Amino acid sequence: MLDLTDAARSAIRVAVETSEAARGLRIVCAAGGCAGIQYRLGLAAGADAEDAVQVFDDNVTVYVDPDSARLLVGATVDFVQDERGAGFVFRNPNAASGCAGCSSKGSC
Fold first, then answer.
1. Cβ contacts of residue 96 below 8 Å, gap of 6+?
2. What pTM did the predictor assign?
């Protein structure tokens, strides 16, 4: 379904280990217009009935609903820390790169 970099797996592992109830990371995708796909991430206590569950070699678990799973095929999730902050970055071949009519503020 998707791939996680070492940095992403490490960040997820730390978040799960510091949470009392979390067992993994839930990723939800939503259509984002010309901006492509919007991602919502959160810790999850377990899988919902229809979730795709992906367990990585180091026991990092990702839960994804069926609609989101289709949008994440071939995607890579990384965790980046720099002078602007830290967060997850998605490299997704299924996401649009924007439209020619978008302004510099991201609105069409």
1. 34, 35, 36, 37
2. 0.84
